[in-house]
Amino acid sequence: MGKTGGYSLLLSFFTASVIIREMKSGDTKLEHITSLSGNHLVEKTHGRIAFRGMVDTLEAEVIEAQVLANELGEEEICGNLGEILDLLRSLMAAEVKETPLPPPFLFGMEAGEIHRQSHDTGNIFGLGFTLPSCAQGPLAARLNTLRAKVREAELLAVRVFGPKGKDGPPAAEQFYAEREDIILALNRLSSALWWLFCKHVCKL
Fold first, then answer.
1. Which of 46, 84, 149, 160 stands 20 to 30 A from 6 (CA)?
2. What is the domain extent for residue 57?
3. pLDDT digits over 83-95, tens only?
């Protein structure tokens, strides 16, 4: 299955996502169901379970990127990626425990500053409009892949946690996000990875 096909499947996971029942003492859990929270059981195709799987994959890929950064002697970027890993782990914990996620803080920047700087990389890093390319090397390619995959996670989060109300495009008053904190964190995380990509590329 190609990457696009896999992503489409993930987006469809949440369509039949209802809590099956509560787990009681002595019950046997079937293999196609899992715990959503506490003793609430759902099918493994539930949107929140699919989302957790995507975040788990992101964490693994950030660690792979750290290994590559270390091998290339890019200790600062390895540390930056460590901050990203910490944010993803905090995000996962907040989703599973159904607790608030604090606003993202990465590389010494709050959410608003991450957004501002990621849209002003030309002035900050002296780069013109830059498209990723193989000429930029393996670490730049890996950072760009992480950025794109975080975007996918953000889109899945919007599908799982976002639009509520009537079918079709929701009116402003009908739209809210159950986990706007998670959606915000993923949006700023992709911006932070673009910022990190540009910071790395400007040194090449």
1. 84
2. 47-164+175-201
3. 999 999 999 999 9
